[in-house]
Amino acid sequence: SITRVLCENYGCSVTAIEQDEESIRSLTPLCERVYRLDLNESSWQQGLANEAPFDVVVVADVLEHLYDPWSALRHIRDFISPNGYIVVSLPHAGHNAILASLLEENFEYRDTGLLDRTHIRFFGIRNIQNLFEDAGFAIVEAQFVVRFPEDTELAQQWASLPAATRIALLKNKFGLVYQVIVKAVPGG
Question: How far apart are CA 187 and CA 86, in angstroms?
Answer without folding.
Answer: 12
